[in-house]
C-alpha cells in the first residue's frame, strides 16, 4: 500500500504526468470555489446577525480573516515546496512554489487592504504600526522579493534555487505574525479562533467565516493549478511531450478552420 | 579535525546559540515592547516624561463627559488597578464607548493625559446583539443575587 | 434594499473591501488564463516551425 | 600509487584561513578607500541634511534623532552591500573561494566581519558626533552607540545573504534593497525603540536583549544561507 | 580515484551532454575535446563541484564530491577562464593570501621562487592590475607551482600565454603527472605533453 502510494507520488511528480492531472482537477476546484463562495457570501450577509459591538462593519471579517490565513498558509506551503525543490531536486516543487507566490502576495495585500478598511470604522484609523500589521506588511515584501528575484535571474534552474532559498529564510516571519498579538499588546485584536481555545465567536458567524476560508482555499488551489500548467509548458518547452501536445492542438485548430 | 568532529562542534555551537537567542527573546518579552502603556505603568513612572506616548486601557463606566463645544471630551482610562483622566478634542471613533478598550496618543500634563488621537480597541468576541443583551441581563441578575447575599456566585472577571 | 447597502452607515468600508477583493480575484483569473493562452500560442508556433524545418 | 607525496593535506587550520580572509578583505578595502568613504559620507550627509530640511530647532531634531541616525546607518549599509561579493564574483576569486578546503559558511563569516569593520564600525564610531549635531544628550548618545553596535552587524549579516542572492543578476542593486529591507525593518524598529525608550526615561533592557537575540540568530543562520546563495550564484 | 558516472549537464534549455562516464587514475592526463558550446567548461566545473549535475555523480576516492567537499577541495586545484587574481593586490600578496586561505604552508621564499620560475621576477610587488593579460595569467599559474593538490583541473590554461610560457606550463603538467598527479584540461592549441597515459574525451562524439 505504502509502496503503491509512493509510486503514485513519484509518477505525478513528473511535470509530464502532472500537467493532464491538474487539467482534470481544475474544473472541480472551480466548482467547489463557486458553490462555497455563494454559500459563504449568503451566510455572511443574510444569515449572520449584526454584531453586538461593531454593528455591520464586522462583516469585513468574512474576507479579512480568510485572506490573512491564506497569506500565511500559502507562504508556508511555498516554503515547503522550496525545501523539497532544493533538497530533492523535484522540478515540479520549484514550479509549484513560483505558482503560489503571486496568489500569496495577492491575499497578503487583500488582508492588509480589508484590514485598513475595517480599522477605519472600528479603531478610527486605517493604519497603525503595531506588531501584527507591520509583520504582515513584511510578508508582502517577502512575496514581492521572491517574485522579483525569480524574474531577475535568466536561468530558470538558478532562479528557482535562489528564490527558494529566500523563501526559506523568510519563514522566520510566520511565527512572528501569528503570535504577535500574544507577545505584544497591539491595537489589533487577539485571535478569535485558535487551536487551543474555544472560539470566541457566535457559531453562525464562525461557520460563515470558515466557509469563506475554505472557498478562498479552493480558489487558491484552482488558480495555482492553472498557473502551474502555464509554468510547466514554459519550462518544459524543449521536451517532446510539450511539442507533441501543442503540435496536435495546432493541427486541430487548422482542421477546425477548414 | 575529522569531519565528524567538526560537524559535532558546529551542532554544539548552533545549539548553544539557539539557547542564548531563546533566553534573550524571553527576556525581551517580559519587558516593555508594546504599542501602548497601561495606567499603572504610567503612574509608576514607566512612561516617557514630556513626550508623546500611547496610553491603553478600558474607558471607565460613566466617566465620559462632553463639553459644550461638542468636540472636547473628558473620560477616564483604567487597567482595573489604576485610573488616569484623559482629555481629548476631536472626533471619537464609532466604537468608542464606556467600558470599551481604547488607545490614546498624547502627553501627560499635570496628572491629566492630553490626547491628540484616540483609537478604539475591540476584543476578539463576536456575537449577535440579542445574545449580548441576554448575557447582560444574566449578569444583572447575578449581581442582584450577589447583593442579596448569595455566596455561591462567582464574580465575573471583566 | 438601500438599507442593506448602507450597512448601518459603514457601507462604504464594507463594499470597498469586498469590491477590491472581488476585483483582484477576477483580475487574477483573467491574467492567468490570458498568460497561459499566450504561452500556448508562442510554443505552438515554435512547434510548427520546428516540424516544418524537419 | 603515490598518494603520499601529493596529499600532504591541509596544514593550516580553519582559523588561519579565516584570518587570511579578514586580512585580504581589509587590505582590499584600504586599497579602495574611495568606495568605503562613499558610504560613510552618505551616512554623514543624510543626517546633516535633516536640520536643513526639517527644522533647525533642537527640540524637534532631538525627537527624531535616533530614527534619523538609524535610517541613515541602514541606507549607508545597504549602499555598501553591492561590493561585498561583486568584485570577487567578477574576477573569479569567488570560484576559488568556493573551492577552498574549509566550510564556506565560516569563510563568509570572516568576509562579513571585514565588511562590518569597514562599513559598520565607522558608523558606530561616528554616531556620537551626529547625535550631538541633532541635539542628543550624553546618555542617549551612549545608548545609540550600543544599539548600533548590536544592530549594524545584523545589518551586515542579513545584507550578505541579500548580496549573495543577487550576484550577477540584472538590476541587482535595486533588488538587493528589496530583499534585504523587510528583514531590516525589525532591527530598525527595535534599535530606534531602545533609544527612544532610554530618552524618555523608560526601561530599554528588553529592546537590547531583543537586538542581542537578532544578532545571535543572524550569526547562526545567515552564514549558512549566504554560503548556499554563493554556490547558487556561480552556477 | 576520480570517477564520473552517468553525468548529465543541462544549461538553460539545452542539454549539453548526458550519460558521460570516465575515470582518471594517478599519473593520467585527461584531454577534453569538443567544439564551442559542447560543454567543456561546464564539465570541468561540474567535476570541481561548482555546478550541480542534473543527473549522475562525480566520485572522488569512491565518495560523492558534494558530500566531502573539504577533503576533495584540499586535493583540487582549479584554473578557470577567470584568473581569480585580485587587481589591487600584488602578485606576491595574491599568492601569499591564496596559500593561507587554502591552508598551505608556503614560505615567502617559496612564493618568490615560484614567481621567478613563472617569469614574473622583478614584478612581484606591482599591483597585478598594471600587469598585462598574459602576466596576470602567469600569476594564476604560479598557484600550480605552490599547490600540493593531486588533481589539477585546467580550463584553457594556455590562452594569453606566449610560446615560452606554454612550454613551461607543459613541463609543469608533465612533472605533476610524473609525481602521480592527475590533470584534466581543455585547450584549442596544439600542445605537446608527454605523459604516461593520455585519455581523451570528446564531447562532440557523445550523442546528447
Structural account:
The complex is a heteropentamer of chains A (258), B (158), C (54), D (235) and E (208). Chain A is mostly helical and 258 residues long. Chain A has 9 helices and no strands. The termini of chain A are far apart. Residues 251-258 of chain A have low confidence and may be disordered. Helices cover 79% and strands 0% of the residues of chain A. Chain A is globular, with a radius of gyration of 21 Å. Chain B is of the alpha+beta class and 158 residues long. Chain B has 3 helices and 6 strands; from the N terminus they run ααββββββα. In chain B, a hairpin with a 2-residue loop joins strand 5 and strand 6. Chain C has 54 residues and is mainly alpha-helical. Chain C is 89% helix and 0% strand. The longest helix of chain C is centred in the middle third of the chain and has 43 residues, at 11-53. Chain A binds chain B through residues 49-54, 57-58, 61, 121-125, 128, 130-131, 183-187, 189-192, 200-202, 204-205, and chain B through 29, 33-36, 56, 92-97, 100, 103, 117-133.
Radius of gyration from the alpha-carbon trace of chain D, in angstroms: 20 Å
Main beta sheet of chain C: strand number and arrangement?
none
Oligomer: heteropentamer
What is the CA-CA span between the terminal residues of chain D? Answer: 33 Å
The helix count of chain D comes to 11
Q: Biggest interface: chains and residue counts?
A: D-E, 40 and 41 residues
Binned strand content of chain C: under 5%
What is the helix/strand order of chain D? HHHHHHHHHHH
H/E element order of chain C: HH
How many structurally independent domains of chain D? 1
How much helix is in the residues of chain D? over 70%
Tell me how many strands of chain D there are.
0
Amino acid at each position: 500500500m505504502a509502496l503503491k502510494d509512493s509510486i503514485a507520488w513519484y509518477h505525478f511528480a513528473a511535470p509530464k504526468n502532472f500537467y493532464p492531472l491538474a487539467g482534470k482537477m481544475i474544473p472541480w476546484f472551480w466548482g467547489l470555489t463557486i458553490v462555497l463562495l455563494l454559500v459563504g457570501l449568503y451566510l455572511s450577509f443574510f444569515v449572520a446577525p449584526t454584531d453586538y459591538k461593531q454593528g455591520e462593519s464586522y462583516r469585513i471579517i468574512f474576507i479579512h480573516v480568510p485572506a490573512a490565513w491564506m497569506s500565511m498558509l500559502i507562504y508556508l506551503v511555498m516554503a515547503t515546496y522550496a525545501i523539497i525543490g532544493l533538497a530533492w531536486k523535484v522540478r515540479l516543487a520549484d514550479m509549484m512554489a513560483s505558482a503560489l507566490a503571486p496568489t500569496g502576495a495577492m491575499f497578503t495585500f487583500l488582508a492588509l487592504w480589508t484590514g485598513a478598511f475595517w480599522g477605519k470604522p472600528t479603531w478610527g484609523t486605517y493604519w497603525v504600526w503595531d506588531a501584527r500589521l507591520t509583520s504582515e506588511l513584511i510578508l508582502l515584501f517577502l512575496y514581492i522579493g521572491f517574485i522579483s528575484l525569480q524574474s531577475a535571474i535568466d536561468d530558470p534552474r538558478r532562479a528557482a534555487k535562489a528564490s527558494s532559498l529566500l523563501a526559506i529564510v523568510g519563514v522566520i516571519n510566520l511565527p512572528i505574525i501569528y503570535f504577535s498579538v500574544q507577545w505584544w499588546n497591539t491595537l489589533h485584536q487577539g485571535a478569535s479562533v485558535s487551536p487551543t481555545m474555544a472560539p470566541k465567536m457566535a457559531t453562525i458567524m464562525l461557520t460563515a467565516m470558515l466557509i469563506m476560508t475554505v472557498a478562498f482555499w479552493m480558489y487558491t488551489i484552482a488558480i495555482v493549478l492553472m498557473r502551474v500548467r502555464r509554468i510547466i509548458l514554459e519550462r518544459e518547452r524543449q521536451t517532446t511531450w510539450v511539442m507533441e501536445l501543442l503540435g496536435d492542438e495546432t493541427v486541430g485548430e487548422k482542421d477546425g478552420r477548414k | 579535525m575529522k569531519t565528524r568532529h567538526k560537524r559535532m562542534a558546529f551542532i554544539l555551537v548552533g545549539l548553544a546559540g539557539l539557547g542564548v537567542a531563546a533566553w534573550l527573546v524571553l527576556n525581551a518579552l517580559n519587558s516593555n515592547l508594546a504599542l501602548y502603556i497601561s495606567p499603572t505603568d504610567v503612574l509608576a513612572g514607566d512612561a516617557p516624561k514630556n513626550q508623546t506616548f500611547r496610553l491603553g486601557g478600558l474607558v471607565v463606566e460613566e466617566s465620559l463627559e462632553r463639553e459644550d463645544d461638542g468636540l472636547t471630551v473628558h473620560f477616564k482610562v483604567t487597567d482595573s488597578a489604576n485610573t488616569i483622566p484623559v482629555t481629548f478634542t476631536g472626533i471619537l471613533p464609532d466604537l468608542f464607548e464606556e467600558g470599551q478598550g481604547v488607545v490614546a496618543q498624547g502627553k501627560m500634563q499635570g496628572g491629566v493625559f492630553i490626547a491628540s488621537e484616540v483609537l478604539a480597541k475591540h476584543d476578539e468576541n463576536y456575537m449577535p446583539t440579542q445574545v449580548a443583551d441576554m448575557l447582560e441581563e444574566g449578569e444583572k441578575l447575578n449581581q442582584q443575587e450577589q447583593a442579596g447575599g448569595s455566596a455561591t456566585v462567582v464574580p465575573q472577571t471583566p | 434594499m438601500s438599507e442593506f447597502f448602507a450597512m448601518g452607515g459603514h457601507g462604504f468600508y464594507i463594499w470597498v473591501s469586498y469590491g477590491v477583493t472581488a476585483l483582484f480575484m477576477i483580475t487574477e483569473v483573467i491574467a492567468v488564463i490570458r498568460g497561459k493562452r499566450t504561452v500556448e500560442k508562442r510554443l505552438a508556433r515554435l512547434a510548427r516551425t520546428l516540424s516544418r524545418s524537419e | 600509487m603515490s598518494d603520499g607525496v601529493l596529499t600532504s593535506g591541509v596544514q593550516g587550520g580553519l582559523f588561519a584561513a579565516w584570518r587570511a580572509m579578514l586580512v585580504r578583505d581589509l587590505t582590499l578595502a584600504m586599497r579602495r578607500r574611495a568606495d568605503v568613504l562613499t558610504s560613510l559620507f552618505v551616512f554623514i550627509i543624510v543626517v546633516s541634511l535633516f536640520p536643513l530640511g526639517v527644522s533647525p530647532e533642537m527640540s524637534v531634531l532631538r525627537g527624531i534623532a535616533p530614527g534619523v541616525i538609524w535610517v541613515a546607518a541602514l541606507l549607508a549599509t545597504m549602499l555598501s552591500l553591492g561590493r561585498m561579493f561583486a568584485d570577487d564574483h567578477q574576477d573569479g576569486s569567488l570560484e576559488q573561494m568556493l573551492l577552498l578546503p574549509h566550510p564556506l559558511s565560516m569563510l563568509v563569516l570572516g568576509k562579513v566581519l571585514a565588511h562590518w569593520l569597514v562599513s559598520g564600525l565607522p558608523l558606530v564610531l561616528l554616531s556620537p558626533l551626529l547625535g550631538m549635531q541633532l541635539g542628543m544628550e550624553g546618555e542617549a548618545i551612549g545608548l545609540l552607540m550600543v544599539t548600533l553596535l548590536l544592530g549594524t552587524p545584523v545589518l551586515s549579516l542579513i545584507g550578505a545573504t541579500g548580496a549573495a542572492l543577487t550576484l550577477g543578476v540584472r538590476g541587482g542593486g535595486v533588488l538587493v534593497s528589496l530583499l534585504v529591507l523587510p528583514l531590516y525593518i525589525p532591527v530598525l524598529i527595535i534599535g530606534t525603540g531602545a533609544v527612544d525608550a532610554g530618552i524618555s526615561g523608560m526601561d530599554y533592557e528588553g529592546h537590547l536583549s531583543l537586538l542581542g537575540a537578532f544578532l545571535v540568530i543572524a550569526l547562526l543562520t545567515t552564514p549558512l544561507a549566504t554560503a548556499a546563495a554563493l554556490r547558487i550564484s556561480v552556477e | 580515484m576520480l570517477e564520473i558516472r552517468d553525468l548529465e549537464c543541462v544549461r538553460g534549455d539545452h542539454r549539453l551532454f548526458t550519460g558521460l562516464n570516465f575515470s582518471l587514475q594517478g599519473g593520467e592526463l585527461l584531454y577534453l575535446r569538443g567544439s564551442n558550446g559542447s560543454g567543456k567548461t561546464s564539465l570541468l566545473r561540474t567535476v570541481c563541484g561548482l555546478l550541480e549535475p542534473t543527473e549522475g555523480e562525480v566520485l572522488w576516492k569512491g565518495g560523492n564530491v558534494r558530500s566531502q567537499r573539504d577533503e576533495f577541495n584540499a586535493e583540487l586545484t582549479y584554473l578557470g577562464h577567470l584568473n581569480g587574481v585580485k587587481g589591487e593586490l600584488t602578485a606576491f600578496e595574491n599568492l601569499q593570501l591564496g596559500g593561507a586561505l587554502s591552508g598551505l604552508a608556503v614560505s615567502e621564499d617559496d612564493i618568490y621562487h615560484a614567481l621567478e620560475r613563472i617569469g614574473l621576477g622583478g614584478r612581484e610587488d606591482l599591483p597585478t592590475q598594471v600587469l598585462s593579460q598574459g602576466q596576470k595569467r602567469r600569476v594564476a599559474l604560479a598557484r600550480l607551482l605552490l599547490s600540493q593538490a593531486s588533481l589539477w583541473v585546467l580550463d584553457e590554461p594556455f590562452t594569453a600565454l606566449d610560446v615560452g610560457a606554454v612550454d613551461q606550463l607543459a613541463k609543469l603538467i608533465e612533472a605533476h603527472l610524473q609525481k602521480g598527479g592527475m590533470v584534466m584540461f581543455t585547450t584549442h592549441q596544439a600542445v605537446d605533453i608527454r605523459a604516461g597515459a593520455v585519455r581523451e574525451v570528446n564531447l562532440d562524439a557523445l550523442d546528447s
